[in-house]
Amino acid sequence: MPIDPRKRLLLRLAALGAVSPLALSACGQKEEASAAAPTAAPASAPAKAEPLKAAWIYVGPVGSAGWSFEHDLGRKDVQAALGDRVQTSFVENVPEGADTERVLRDLISQGNTMLFGTSFGFMEAMVKVAPDFPDLRFEHATGYKTGPNLNVYDSRFYQPVYLAGMIAAGMSKTDVLGYVGSVPIPEVLRNINAFTLGAQSVKPDIKVRVVFINGWFDPPKETEAANSLLNGGADVLLQNTDSPAVIQAAAQAGKLAFGWDSDMSEIGGKAHLGSVVVDWGPYYKKTIGAALDGTWKGGQTTRWGMPEGQNLLIKLSDQIPADLKARVEKAEAGIKDRSFDVFTGPIVDRDGKERLAVGVRADDDWMGAINFFVPGIEGQIPSPT
Question: Residue 27 has what DSSP assignment?
């Protein structure tokens, strides 16, 4: 049988050492698949996204109670909820003014792309810095100026403050209440008026005496103001300042008071009637979540209160009579379902001038421009410094 020409060629090449025996044996097989392609290198894992770096600035120390403490609890909520998707930090005791701008720029130089300013007095610095960094996100608490990359967020403290006024009036034996004010901005005047209106819903002729300290966090001045109110006949105190000094002064004098910003029930002891608090965590998680998923927008104003669960009156004392608690709970339910609004006309100022007509509910523009006291408040509104 003649040898296949292809095999003859391979035998000749094999003799010359050009073809291996394996190639020779393969030539008699029917068509085979061509040599396998080289195995592809395994795909490399996708690069891990860098965390969003967010920083908070606080006007006072974090401490264990009060305004800055409560904001820092919100920051910690963000870190716990979002894990390694975020990297958070804070700077405490930041003065309002020129130092605010310096701290903001320093935090930006450290790679932070989202900045939270948590005091009203930080507003102008944030308004100045934000346009210089259009790709960054700025959030300001309690202010009113926004920009393309600057938002405002606030809480409706006046809602639980109204309820505190009801309790204060019902618990007072002297029919004189005391209020330690911080700075005379609409937010603070709104709270003082709400406290008074709540108190007057229980005792129409009750008086509220106010002393301002012209600052947010100054424990010695807060103590001095509280003691002056107590010495002047007030037996239940509320404050718009950031430390526990007011409730501590009331406790030492054997009088009553409310916690402010955070739970001060343990600090106040028997003096504690309840705490007017704010929970910033839900807003912080919402807005940082929007930054992470690309839906964050500037130029926004967000104000939440009791209906959203941001503001609360908690840890009510067992000293409060059941009938008074029932009245407070009814008003609270009305605030939460929006059937009742704290600022509903008629509202007049101490000079008898109508500020809100009968049946009209105040809007945010009206509340953001409050510059007066309602009747029943004793004390002067200082000129803004």
Answer: T
Nearest 5°: phi and psi at 216? -100, -40
Question: What is the spatial distance between Cα 259 and Cα 273, in angstroms, rounded to a whole number?
Answer: 8
Mean pLDDT of 33-38: 43
Output DSSP code: residue 147: B
Q: Which fold has domain 52-155+280-304?
A: Rossmann fold (3.40.50)
Kind of pairing between the strands at 236-239 and 256-261:
parallel
Mean pLDDT of 247-269: 97
Calculate the alpha carbon distances from 362 to 133, 214, 341, 347 in Å: 36, 27, 8, 10
126 Cβ partners below 8 Å, 6+ apart? 100, 104, 115, 117, 138, 140, 143, 150
Domain ranges of the chain: 52-155+280-304, 158-277+311-378
Q: Tokens for 145?
A: 């100026």
Task: Grade residue 383 by pLDDT with cuts at 50, 70 and 90.
Answer: confident
Query: What's the residue count for the chain?
Result: 385
Q: What is the pTM of this model?
A: 0.86
Q: Which CATH superfamily, name and number, covers 158-277+311-378?
A: Response regulator (3.40.50.2300)
Question: Counting Cβ atoms within 10 Å, is residue 115 exposed (0-12), middle (13-18) or buried (19+)?
Answer: buried
Is beta strand 86-91 parallel, antiparallel or unpaired with respect to 52-57? parallel
Which three-class secondary structure state does DSSP give residue 297?
A: coil
**C-alpha–C-alpha distance, residues 61 and 261, integer Å:** 14
335-375 per-position pLDDT tens digit: 999 999 999 999 999 999 999 999 999 999 999 999 999 99
